[in-house]
Amino acid sequence: MTPYRGRFAPSPTGPLHLGSLVAAMASYLDAKVHGGQWLVRIEDLDRDRNVPGADEHILASLRRCGMAWDGEVTWQTRREPLYETALAQLAQHVYPCGCSRREIADSQTSLRAHLQGRPGLPHTATPVYPGTCRAGLAPGKAPRALRLRTPQHPARVIGFDDRWHGHVEQDITAEVGDFVIRRADGFWAYQLAVVVDDAAQGITDIVRGADLLDSTPRQLYLQELLGVPHPRYLHVPVVANADGEKLSKQTGAAAFDNGAPPAQLLAQSLIPAARFLGLHVAAETIDGFWSAAVPAWERLLREHGRV
After folding, report:
1. What pTM does this model have?
2. Where does L-glutamate bind (predicted)?
3. Spatial distance between the Cα atoms of 307 and 44, rounded to a whole number of angstroms
């Protein structure tokens, strides 16, 4: 059996908030329960959104929380030759697209349908790409993004067993369409980069927020085309604000770590994050918290058949 290897992969667009801490905690605990390694990767490809110094703030916050990673931290911007190699492998499946987001949205007669009978994948209003540039760029259009073809005849339904949500499926042809692997601004798209990085780092288990559940079938398809292993997945619930929106930097989520003393960090961040995950942990120190949280996570997994 391949040794467990997990990761936490934050974007340096600001400090970590409670929602980020929940995802980090779940991935860290899962690695500890399985006696595996836990890596940290900084996903900084979107240079326009990166905040100077945010990566170091993130790493400092993890250290203050007592979360020690294995090996060296990696930055995606230092790994771009790997994405170029992957693009070359995918060449026969890729084509240039000259469509803007507005044009794609305007081409839709309705927003993406949520197929009945396929539990687990949340409804999303992202328009399905209509295939405008599949047969070549329309007259007067310049190439912008690079898109990956999805199977058309027959359509492709991709399913997987999520350790938290159970079996989920997505018809990537009808619900996604051909998707971007290099953006119009020249940056590598998340879907390609994360698949390449996870394969290069030998990641066996991905524990992350359920907001990324919808992305998993596309990543499984890319893994298939690139001939790399499929990791196991576990998508934990996401923390929402008072308006029911996912807690994020875009919705004004506050940093969970502002240099508070350890006792305050424990009481106001670590214990609430554990409680959100369904863990009942009582501790007076950060070391004591992790000593109690690891077996609590293992019990939770066993009780719900998620091991």
Report:
1. 0.91
2. 7-11, 43, 190, 208
3. 31
